[in-house]
Structure prediction request, 289 residues.
Amino acid sequence: MTRHTTRLRQLLAAPRILVAYDGTGARLVRAFGFEAVYLSGFQTSASLLGQPDVGYLTMTQMVERVAALSDVTDLPLIADGDTGYGNPLNVRRAVRGYERAGAAAMHIEDQTFPKRCGHMLGRQVIPRDQMVQKIKAAVDARTDPDFVIIARTDARTTMGLDEALERGAAYHEAGADVLFIESPESEEEMRRVCETFRGVVPVLSNQIEGGRTPMPGVGALERMGYALAIFSLGLAFAAAKGMRDYLEVLSTKGDTHGALDGMVAFDDFNRLIGLDEHAELEHRYEVPG
Prediction:
């Protein structure tokens, strides 16, 4: 059976990557025919901690979430590795942890700590040479040669696109398999990112509704030359609206009748999260009476 890491490398020619918000989201991603899953640090911080993506989330918490998602989907999982949780030695430990937990790839960014979401203002980046050492440590740490190391730079917002592209080239030279030039601010900049690295290394686009980067659609991203596109926060935004709408109806009406059309039915939800498979397993191992 092909490993998740190998399958992900085979997908790098097609931008068909969608975020999974949690275990339920991972099952929906598969149900709609997407071929990989993305685990966002922003979403994990929001759902697990109820906190913004400003560095509160720990490596241990992310590794636990990677393991939980890997257990409910056979799709390759790309996971957010923030800044690598410290210096190059911390990066080595993070790579080993993510790989053991079942991730097929992780991305590491060149922000200072505490980091911020890549579409927020106020981000600062570490010196280029320090990030190069982190990438080298990540590459050295993996035990599966197909485990994908994605290098992200946040330099565009504060230092300009030229610096971001130069950093991307340095990170690829250090061994990164995919480049993640965060938050280009126009389609022209996006095309320049793709042209710079076309035929050299795959590039990834982070698509966030309301973020700093245009969202031209998957077809346009393919034509530009992106190999991967992560729609990293849309499910979180949709889930939050659904929860807010439900609670608004309950608080104003005193019942939930007006919210039913916006909900998945009880039986459908149980099927979605695998109750039927659980029942089959119960029957398989049932002790005859």
Observations:
- The two ends are 38 Å apart (CA to CA).
